[in-house]
Amino acid sequence: MLETLKETNSSVNYWKEIEKNLSDELKNLRGIVLLIHNSMEFTDIIDFLQHVRQGQFLNVLYISLVRSYDYIKKALELKPLDQKRMMFIDCVSGYAFPIEENLDEAFYHKPPQNLDEMKDIIRFGIEKTNADMIIIDSLSQFISFTQPTEDGIVELYEFLRTLKEGTMNVMQNTVLLLYDSKLGVMQNLPKTSMDLILRIEIGKK
Amino acid sequence: MSLPWRNNLLSSKQKIVQVHYWKKMMKETHEVVGKLHGVVLLIHNSVEFSDIIDFLNKIRDDEQLLVVYLSLINSYSRIREVLKENPLKSKQLFVVDCVSGFVVELKDIHDCVYRKPPINLDELKELLLKNIASQNPDIVVVDSMSQLINFSVPTEDELSKFYLFLHSLKENILGLSEDSIILLYDDKIGQLQNLPTISVDLILKLEVIRDAPRWRG
Fold first, then answer.
1. What is the structure's pLDDT at A171?
2. Mean of the pLDDT values across residues A13-28?
3. Structural domain for A192, as ranges
4. Half-sphere exposure at residue B196, Cβ-oriented, CA atoms within 13 angstroms
5. Closest Cβ opposite residue B17 in set A19, A193, A205
6. Measured between beta carbons, which residues in chain A are less than 8 angstroms from residue B217?
7. CATH code, domain with A35
8. Of A19, A59, A64, B112, which sees the most CB atoms within 10 A?
9. Is residue B18 part of a domain?
10. Tally of structural domains, chain B
């Protein structure tokens, strides 16, 4: 059982700028990866995905809690993704489509209320798509690293543990957990449970 | 015909200036910081001087090194005070105090010289070169570049002068491949739009979050 202990302390994070080596860093991306971003657009996510495991043809399962399939499809028409077959579980339009309708590349689902329900959606998606890469957009729907509750942290660690173990066994594959940092300064990152933590800062004017 | 979703997707009113990719260092911190060489830009979130000492202690901790610390932020007396509580291991510090020198004329001592603060990068370069020549340090720290340049809204002229400054540092300082120049930059001014990714050997970000609730799993 996961035991948590809360104490007051300072947290130190070291980050290395990797633009020069981005392709090398991402070409063999495996395991559970937390991708923190500053409210990037879906087209920016496509740009990032172009670098991930470049040169390999991948089945990608994209579980969206923030953008509808309709919106994503239009973005992909505008900016196609090479060498990746994208399949979606749209948990946004799921409100409008309470009964799942099986399309070629998209499933509709009601938005999960918690990470337990998210596990079920992932299992469902893996069965349907046999994905090499799973993207969850976004973890910020379940937890805030700015003011995380103890229960929230326990639930997150349990979720990550399930992803690594058991039937999901994602370690051969890639699980990308997107997190929007607009909520505020991230007090504590789940360092021990992630294989890699990346951060993208997009400067716009 | 106008396509509203297309306009929305492109967000045409906002232009992407630069995209920065950062990797959280976990096990490799020791490897990267421990063997630090070359010109390093260290961006931080208004860390305290004691945090900078912690950082310096991680660098090449198996060698006896001389550090020239050019300070535009902390006075020599403040630095000494902090060092009593947080000693610098395996490193000797020589301070170029550009804070106290501005207020009152003080006499140079064996581990500190007092100088007026440089008002531009040319003056900073001159000051660095003089002290490097006299001390022959292994590590040079400039605290902080934020006093002279703002990467949030830099003009082309400012960036070009900064690149020249970096280029000149590399050209004029012999043995740089063996040594380190650490340029501190406090990002409290705002989100960094332009980073000099080409002209520096490494860009690191140090984030210290005080009084954070910590969970152990």
1. 56
2. 93
3. 30-200
4. 26
5. A205
6. 2-4, 153, 157, 192-193
7. 3.40.50
8. A64
9. no
10. 1
- Which CATH number do you get for residue B135? 3.40.50
Is-contact A79 B11, C-beta < 8 A?
no
ipTM for the complex?
A: 0.89
Domain boundaries, position B175: 23-204
**Closest Cβ opposite residue B212 in set A3, A10, A47:** A10
Task: Give B-chain residues touching A205 at CB under 8 angstroms.
Answer: 14-15, 17, 193
The answer to the question of residue A120 being in a domain is yes
In this prediction, residues B165-191 reach a mean pLDDT of: 81
Question: What share of chain A in percent tops pLDDT 90?
Answer: 57
Q: Name the amino acid, one letter, at B151.
A: F
Percent of chain A with pLDDT over 70: 87
pTM assigned to the model: 0.88
B7 at A interface, C-beta within 8 A: no
User: Strand pairing of B139-143 and B180-186?
Assistant: parallel
- How many domains does chain A fold into? 1
Give the whole-number percent of chain B exceeding pLDDT 90. Answer: 59
Question: What band does A4 get if pLDDT is binned at 50, 70 and 90?
Answer: very low
pLDDT for B62-107, tens place per residue? 899 999 999 999 999 999 999 999 999 999 999 999 999 666 778 9
State the CB neighbour count (10 A cutoff) for residue A150.
12
Residue B70 lies in a domain: yes
Does residue A161 surpass a pLDDT of 50? yes
Q: Which residues of A touch B21 (CB under 8 A)?
A: 17-19, 22, 25, 198-200
* B193 vs A189, A193, A205: nearest CB: A205
